[in-house]
Amino acid sequence: MSGRIDIPEQELSERFVRAAGPGGQNVNKVATAVELRFDIAQSPSLPEAVRARLLAKRDRRVTAEGVLVINAQRFRTQDRNRQDARERLAAFVESGRAAPKPRIATKPSRAAKARRLDAKRERSTIKKGRSQRDWD
Length: 136
Hints:
Residues 92-136 are annotated as: Disordered. By secondary structure, the protein is α+β, with helices and mostly antiparallel strands. It has a domain at 9-97: Double Stranded RNA Binding Domain, CATH 3.30.160.20. The chain is 41% helix and 14% strand. It has four helices and three strands; from the N terminus they run βαβαβαα. It has a three-stranded antiparallel sheet, with helices on one face. The longest helix is centred in the last third of the chain and has 22 residues, at 110-131. The termini are far apart.
């Protein structure tokens, strides 16, 4: 699939919150962390195939209602965290664009079957040797 997927600003909802973790007074005072929400299930800008693939992913950031929640608090400034959240959203959407290659079923070769059976036979003789008691 060629072309880019453009997500309009209206489909994104951002909330600025205080970051968790170390950082001292700055972290306790300033709301620099960004919580970015994007409704995958209701988005008109996503093609149907991409939407289905993104919703099928077992990602903990996607809620049961199909809303992607990205928390960005890696940087000290609100603007940089906002940029980071949008980059992560773009990467997530991009990962859903590529259709997975269909798996082609193959059979093991005759030599591979023989190697497997030889290994099983060898393992069997090792285990049989452990169980025999001829101490007397």
